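Justification of resources, computational component.

The compute hours requested in this renewal are based largely on the per-chain cost of generating structure records like the one below. Each record pairs the submitted sequence with a full structure-token output. That output is archived, and it is also reused by downstream analysis tasks.
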Amino acid sequence: MVKLFFYLIQNRVLKIMMKPIISSRSKKELVTETIREAILNRELTPGTRLVIENLANQLGVSPIPVREALQQLEADGYVLIEPFVGAKVAPIEAESVVEVFSLLETMEVVSSRAACQHMTEEDLKVLEEIVVKMDELTGDPELWSQENRRFHSYICEKSGTRLIGSLMSKVLDHWDRLHRYFLKDVFERRVRQAQREHWKILKCIQSRDPDRTEAVIREHTRTAMAAYKRHL
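The structure output for this chain reads:
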């Protein structure tokens, strides 16, 4: 049975849905996933204090997996741990926006250039179907965002750049956090332009033109980055 845990942080009651404990997964993994999802869903906002003892009591575990989870989340960039102060949810700053989009640009340039060579006609057909579906979802931010991630991930997946694919998945998690945090401010102003850019990316890959594809990928990521930075 799925258990609903309630815990109080900064005088707020937050609801976290914990998945059933699976024997093959450690408590550290479950606690890490729970806190990460709370951060991505904005249930834990930037700057929220994360007290190990409180979290342990509220999640029904010992302090050890909580401490390990916070250390993992610090390594992943979601949490800051300050000596003699404790842990808190990492803030969203201009530097982090630049870092996320710079990483995405670097990885997507390599994968999209490779995609021009490796994607089959069937792959390109699927990619076009994703863009068409995104056109239909411009009024639904959540579903559009899911397809947006699928669009970029699919290009990488079919490009043959496996190492980049595994790294991009982690960076896209950070993009998800930015997107959810700035959703109301950015989406309506950005979505139409973003769709035009997605169509341009598709057409360039279809034409097997790596140089032009690289150019539009760089344009796409930098335009998106500028849109987010305006709301910091």
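The chain has nine helices and five strands. Confidence is low (pLDDT under 50) at residues 1-24.
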